Amino acid sequence: MPFINIDNKNKNIIKNMIILSIPTVMEEIMSTLLQYVDTAMVGHLGETATAAVSTTTTIGWLIGGTIHSVGIALLAMMSKAVGEKDDERLRRLSEQAVFLVVLCAVVVGGLSLLLAPVIPVWMGSEPDVRGPASEYFFIISLPMLFRAAELIFGASIRATLDTKTPMIVNLIASVLNVPLDYLFIYVFHWGVKGAAYATAICHVVGGTLMFIVFCRKPQFSFRARNIIRPDAGLMGEISAIALPALGARITSHMGYVVFAGLVSGMGTTIFAAHSLAVNAEEIFYIPGYGFSSATSAMTGVAIGERNRKKLSTIIKASVVMTMGVMFLNGLILFFTATPLMAVFTNSGRVIELGAQMLRLIAFTEAVFGLYICMQGLFYGMGETKIVFYVEAFSMWGIRILFTFLVVKVWHLGLTEVWYCMIADNIIKAILLTISMWFFMKLA
């Protein structure tokens, strides 16, 4: 029996999935490519500059993940409302989206600015890195209102099965980053600070454009007077989905912080190689997140329509497409590891060590794709608790525990640290796949 029964109805589902996925995949790829340019420009300023930007990267992920968890909840609820054809509920949810953008800006933005001076110290960075790292993080945290708008309004727009418009908005903001980087870093000679200003301006542009698109969507005909009054019922539902997603994000990104901190203590050269290799690998798994984002919306719509057969097809097609693309990407990564690292730095030792790590992880990209796929499907269903439990167990029980032993007890090298990271990804993929099988059997 084939994995997917390809009848006409399933063909249409798969076709729609591909059509919706292409813009999100392209968006993620282009955004990452332009981040490569950004990282390369900073990287050629030297190892200290690279470390200054990389030191706060994991905290940046934590911030983005916190806001993204709200987007996950809104996407799941809005896409379900789309499937149910409940326009009134969709309108009320759009009002909560505006309220939550402002709330995230105040709370997350305020904390980020307050903690900017001490974060590099917490990360264990060397004394000459702390000043530039703190300044960089402070500047990119200033436009938090616009960063929240990019993520939350973007997720809301995708819930209506419109993936093309968020792609265009994010592409405009990302492309703008390249000339601004060059201008601020090399023409004005502002160094790391210049890269921060370029990033901040791009967030302002992206957030503003995303808000304009959100306001023009007929499905989001929200009433301005209601955005200052949170709906207790809807906020309760949003919290029930968002809090476990937030817990998973915090658990994951705090794990990344500890993980990066452990590697940071191994020396500037090793940390630079590790950080740049992580950045270099990103474009090879980012298409998986593109598929995940699109299929999350389709999953929510299928649940709203109460169409179990459609949901099953979406799950199977998502697994096949994501793992297939990630397998091919892994092959490319293996053969391009060294020239890829050379894009970001001219340090021979950093290039050599980083390339070794990339070739190591290339063989597991398909399995990591399975993890990304399952995570996105559970988020589309609004079943975020399962992801939280798996993330907490694997990140801290596998990656952090064994990395601590590798670095602090056994005094091994970066290769063994990356083995810990690979083991974490594989275990999460297995546990989430088993959970999905049981979920579909019991549903």
Please render the helix and strand layout as text:
Elements: H1 8-43, H2 47-55, H3 57-84, H4 87-115, H5 119-122, H6 127-141, H7 144-159, H8 164-187, H9 191-216, H10 232-264, H11 268-305, H12 308-344, H13 348-361, H14 365-381, H15 384-409, H16 414-442
Q: TL;DR of this structure?
A:
86% of the residues lie in helices and 0% in strands. With 443 residues, it is mainly alpha-helical.
Characterize the biggest β-sheet: none
- State the low-pLDDT regions, or none: none
Give helix % range: over 70%
Terminal CA distance reads 23 Å
What series of H and E elements makes up the topology?
HHHHHHHHHHHHHHHH
What is the β-strand count?
0
Strand content: under 5%
Shape: globular
Give the mean pLDDT: 90
Number of helices: 16
In the residues, how many domains can be counted? 1
Alpha-carbon Rg, integer: 21 Å
Instruction: Assign the structural class, choosing from mainly alpha, mainly beta, alpha/beta, alpha+beta, or little secondary structure.
Output: mainly alpha
Quickly list its features:
443 residues, mainly alpha, globular
Question: How would you describe this structure to a colleague?
Answer:
The structure is a single chain. It contains 16 helices and no strands. By secondary structure, the chain is an all-alpha fold. It has one domain. Helix 1 packs parallel to helix 8, helix 1 runs antiparallel to helix 11 and helix 11 packs across helix 14.
